[in-house]
Q: What sequence folds into this?
């Protein structure tokens, strides 16, 4: 409590972040955590200090965009504490993190913010053994600590104090094994006499102590083990699977184990006992092990570090969630570019032999990028060259790119280094990803390999996105061609219509509506052809055209329905259709309706009361060629409103149809006398907000205005 009372008066000291984080972890008995600071010029959180675990554990999230679906970003965006109570909840809410760190642990993330400004975020973690709920006391202590940190950062900003790098907080390595007391000497003698190996590892996995049995079992002199990571000094242990067990033990604080093959044919068992200061490892000969997917012993060559694999897993998971090209560009800008230290991004594609700018981020002057849109691929630019050749290009300075492509310096950007990465999917180039850096940047061999690997993931996502956008454009173009662009103006009738495709499938379907003037009257139709694909849309177009034709020759409503039914049967389609057709006579205030298996229309009278018109009718169109579709005459006095709709507006899984229609009646009553277009928007808003809309929605409102 004394720290809380004095913090407002204490000067800003160093290391501010590390000490605050350590105090916060101590207050709530957390075993790891990190502080992020918000970049002053970009919506990016950058890890400033980590405690309790090596920073490599959080490598995929050292730099994250504010839009990234991870706890610290959510905490900042929503200005609240985000709590994840365990492994299952992490997998459900944050699958990208769970994929990289599939271990039992709990996590709390909080914003570091004052009322006026956000400075960053904090997360802390606990082992999987703690309760799954965060107590009120823990919540209050964490919130108070973040508030104190925000106040001190605000004071530092007011005083223009520069930020200085702070070391991560980890337990010191136990290298050396110096003996200081007689008891310690005897303990060392006891350990040396044991028939199995014992090692002590710090939080980085470095060996601080190893007994003689451990050195003998591992086949490595003890002097070579001390101070080195076990998997780095022993080639046959240099396997991400083994390192994963070390990570699992530290993060979950659970005992873990694995077996490894010491060449040529000896299997060893490793059991890891973790604490917050490191691990104790027991090594022994394993009993009979069935060799499954292990083949020859590994060579001594360096294997990919697990941290690189973790980054790729995280980003691959993120890319699978993208849909269109815009999503891919946004995700690369928000998550991949910050992760690799890039400040600018351009994604290029090609069409008809010309370069296309698919998206860009981070450029102050968009014209610097957009001048390349439409440029022939034969032009000597690095973007087109990389796209044609499939070979990446790295330019570490403005001078280097200027020597090869002097034309680029005529209208230069604000950047000073570039990585041009070919996006190759299914064996063909689909684009170029350009990462831009604000300062000259040296691309080491390992970094070039990582960037090229990431480009492969981006390429696959971009290929899917290009196909999706093309399909989406085709579907919407076809749907627009089949539905009326506008509704005709009719004497005595006001009309409004809305159409929403299903969110699953091709986003095109068989719902349709139409309004046709007929010799001083009007005919209206609404229907739903079974299915959400091109076949359903094509049949819908034929039905709509047929209804118009039968209306034009003067057929009565029941005759229009019978003729359309016979047409569907003659077309030989396996699809059925529901339909509601009506002839409006505003002068007489009447409407004659005929129904084929369609949801009943609603009628709101001039007094505001809403009733369901339970009309007589026949079966769905396309089932029975002899079916009859009797008509019903309904009064349509001035001020009345007819609501025609398809079942997508009311049906949802687990909801009774009659209850859903009753709910629509209540909504129609509650919306009162809104203008017709606003009323149409309000009625479909519930369906429009649905994340997984299983069916199309068509709505047609017909209003007989008072005094018409």
A:
């Amino acid at each position: 409590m004394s720290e809380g009372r004095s913090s407002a008066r204490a000067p800003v000291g160093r290391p501010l972040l590390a000490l605050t984080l350590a105090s916060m972890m101590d207050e709530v008995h957390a075993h790891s955590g990190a502080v992020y600071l918000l970049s002053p010029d970009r919506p990016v959180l950058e890890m400033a200090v980590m405690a309790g675990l090596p920073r490599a554990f959080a490598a995929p999230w050292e730099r994250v965009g504010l839009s990234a679906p991870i706890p610290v970003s959510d905490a900042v965006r929503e200005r609240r504490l985000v709590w994840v109570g365990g492994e299952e909840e992490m997998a459900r809410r944050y699958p990208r993190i769970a994929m990289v760190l599939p271990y039992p642990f709990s996590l709390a993330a909080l914003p570091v913010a004052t009322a006026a400004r956000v400075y960053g975020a904090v997360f802390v973690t606990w082992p999987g053994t703690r309760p799954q709920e965060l107590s009120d006391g823990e919540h209050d202590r964490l919130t108070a600590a973040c508030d104190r940190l925000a106040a001190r950062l605000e004071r530092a900003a007011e005083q223009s104090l520069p930020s200085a790098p702070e070391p991560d907080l980890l337990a010191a390595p136990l290298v050396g094994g110096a003996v200081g007391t007689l008891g310690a000497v005897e303990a060392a003698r006891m350990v040396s006499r044991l028939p199995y190996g014992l090692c002590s590892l710090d939080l980085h996995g470095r060996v601080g102590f190893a007994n003689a049995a451990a050195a003998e079992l591992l086949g490595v002199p003890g002097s070579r083990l001390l101070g080195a990571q076990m998997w780095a000094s022993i080639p046959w242990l240099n396997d991400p699977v083994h390192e994963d067990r070390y990570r699992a033990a530290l993060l979950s604080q659970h005992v873990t184990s694995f077996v490894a093959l010491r060449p040529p044919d000896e299997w060893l068992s490793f059991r890891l006992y973790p604490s917050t200061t490191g691990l104790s490892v027991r090594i022994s000969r394993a009993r009979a092990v069935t060799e499954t997917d292990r083949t020859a012993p590994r060579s001594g060559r360096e294997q990919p570090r697990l941290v690189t694999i973790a980054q790729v897993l995280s980003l691959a998971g993120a890319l699978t969630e993208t849909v269109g090209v815009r999503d891919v560009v946004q995700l690369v800008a928000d998550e991949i570019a910050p992760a690799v230290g890039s400040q600018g991004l351009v994604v290029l594609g090609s069409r008809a032999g010309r370069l296309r700018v698919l998206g860009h981020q981070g450029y102050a002057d968009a014209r610097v990028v957009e001048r390349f849109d439409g440029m022939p691929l034969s032009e000597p630019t690095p973007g087109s060259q990389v796209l044609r050749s499939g070979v990446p290009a790295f330019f570490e300075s403005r001078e280097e790119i200027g020597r090869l492509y002097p034309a680029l310096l005529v209208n230069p950007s604000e950047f000073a280094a570039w990585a041009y990465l070919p996006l190759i999917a299914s064996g063909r180039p689909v684009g170029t990803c350009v990462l831009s850096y604000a300062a000259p940047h040296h691309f080491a061999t390992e970094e070039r390999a990582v960037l090229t690997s990431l480009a492969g993931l981006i390429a696959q996502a971009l290929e899917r996105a290009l196909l999706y956008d093309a399909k989406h454009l085709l579907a919407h173009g076809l749907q627009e061609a089949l539905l009326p662009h506008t509704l005709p103006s009719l004497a005595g009738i006001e009309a409004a219509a809305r159409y929403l495709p299903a969110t699953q499938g091709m986003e095109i379907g068989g719902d349709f509506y139409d309004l046709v003037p007929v010799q001083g009257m009007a005919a209206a139709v609404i229907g739903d052809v079974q299915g959400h694909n091109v076949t359903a849309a094509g049949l819908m177009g034929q039905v709509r055209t047929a209804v118009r034709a039968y209306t034009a020759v003067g057929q009565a409503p029941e005759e229009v329905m019978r003729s359309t039914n016979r047409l569907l049967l003659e077309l030989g389609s396996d699809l059925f259709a529901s339909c509601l057709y009506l002839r409006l006579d505003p002068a007489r205030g009447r409407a004659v309706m005929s129904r084929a298996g369609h949801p009943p229309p609603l009628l709101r009278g001039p007094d505001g009361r809403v009733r369901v018109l339970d009309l007589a009718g026949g079966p769905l169109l396309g089932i029975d060629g002899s079916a009859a579709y009797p008509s019903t005459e309904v009064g349509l006095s001035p001020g009345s409103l007819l609501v025609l709709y398809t079942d997508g507006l009311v049906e949802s899984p687990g909801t009774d149809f009659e209850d859903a229609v009753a709910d629509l009646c209540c909504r129609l009553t509650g919306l009162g006398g809104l203008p017709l277009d606003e009323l149409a928007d309000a009625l479909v808003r519930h369906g429009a907000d649905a994340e997984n809309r299983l069916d199309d929605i068509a709505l047609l409102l017909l209003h007989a205005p008072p005094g018409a």
Q: What stands out?
A: The radius of gyration is 34 Å. The chain is about 35% helix and 25% strand. The CA atoms of residues 379 and 681 lie 49 Å apart.
